[in-house]
Amino acid sequence: MLTLLAALLYSSASGRAEQLPPPKNVTLKSYNMGLVLEWDPPQNSTGRNFKYSAEYKGWSNFEAECNGTSSLSCDFTNSITSFGTYTFRVRTELEERSSVWVMTEEVALDKITAIGPPYVRLLSRKGEIEVDITDPVLRKSDLSNIYSKVSYVIHYWIEGKLKKEELRGEQRKVMLQNLTPKVCYCVQVQILLDDNKTSWPSNVTCEINTNSDEIKPWLIAMVLVVSSIVTMVSAILIFLVVMCVYKVIRYLHPQPTLPEDFKQYFSEMPQSSIFLAMQNSHQPEELYYEVSIVADQEVPTSQLDLQDTECLKLNT
Ligand SMILES: *[C@@H]1O[C@H](CO)[C@@H](O)[C@H](O)[C@H]1NC(C)=O
Ligand SMILES: *[C@@H]1O[C@H](CO)[C@@H](O)[C@H](O)[C@H]1NC(C)=O
Ligand SMILES: *[C@@H]1O[C@H](CO)[C@@H](O)[C@H](O)[C@H]1NC(C)=O
Ligand SMILES: *[C@@H]1O[C@H](CO)[C@@H](O)[C@H](O)[C@H]1NC(C)=O
Ligand SMILES: *[C@@H]1O[C@H](CO)[C@@H](O)[C@H](O)[C@H]1NC(C)=O
């Protein structure tokens, strides 16, 4: 009210003959760090081609942004910075005449701006759902450059159920755990900025949870038992096959059979000492002596007798 009064005084001091009616419903709209001033035409303005001028002021003087425009809005996004406070004003103009300025409050862009919804993508695997959050694209900078604390509030629930679970964190990729397999879950995410500011909530996104791949202990035991049985059976089969093949070969190529006596002889042979000796000893060296054969000579009987007598002598 005070600013409006000041503006009225200022414009009356400029000494214009006929005052134009000022724009109505002047409002600042800020979304994702963009800033647009909007207004409605003055009352009773039908049929009059009003023009408007809009200006902004940082810490020094007002600067023109939209000069003599016929549109009912002015976008200041490219002229202002993310931080700092600004005041805006707009007036009606027609030829040389103009209205009083209508001024806004002093505002800080990061405080007044509305942050749009994040984009949420769901991906289910192994019985869990991964929530993939993408920040909204800002007209200026990005969330982490503007707000010192950026966190995410994830609400998820089984489709059609009222009970919602809540998860808070600073990660943009979050796994929802302990979910029921093959059940449709819905997720909605909101961004929490510097304790008190929240983004618009995301669209509700739903996804059917997958089966978990978790291996059950009884399954491991069964696999072990089955595989050992298979191994045993195949070992037996291989043994039988080998036996059969052997027998067939033996049948086709029979070994000559020896009579029982021979078998016994051969089986005993290694035990005979001669055989062993023959096996163990070297070939004996053969010695040759000259042998001469002479005619038979008569042995003197006296000698034979002597021998006999001596024996007799001993005996006597
Ligand atoms: C100002 O806005 C209100 C609602 O936002 C509306 O009812 C009214 O008609 C508007 N005034 C003008 C002059 O357009
Ligand atoms: C606007 O029109 C109304 C009647 O519709 C009239 O009483 C009023 O004086 C007009 N105001 C201006 C500023 O022309
Ligand atoms: C606005 O435009 C007019 C001409 O259309 C010009 O004379 C005036 O200096 C401009 N004002 C600013 C602040 O740029
Ligand atoms: C939300 O859903 C609407 C309609 O399906 C779509 O146009 C919009 O882009 C979605 N917004 C986000 C942030 O995903
Ligand atoms: C947080 O927002 C609420 C209203 O939404 C307000 O009453 C409160 O003062 C705010 N707190 C801080 C620390 O900004």
TrEMBL record:
CDD domains: FN3
A cellular component term, taken from the record's GO annotations: plasma membrane
Molecular function terms from GO: cytokine receptor activity
Signal peptide: 1-17
Domain Fibronectin type-III, chain residue ranges per copy: 22-112
Residue intervals passing through the bilayer: 218-246
Superkingdom per UniProt: Eukaryota
Pfam families: Interfer-bind (PF09294), Tissue_fac (PF01108)
Keywords noted in UniProt: Membrane, Signal, Transmembrane, Transmembrane helix
UniProt cross-references to PANTHER family, sorted A to Z: INTERFERON GAMMA RECEPTOR 2, INTERFERON/INTERLEUKIN RECEPTOR
Protein name: Fibronectin type-III domain-containing protein
Species assigned in the record: Electrophorus voltai
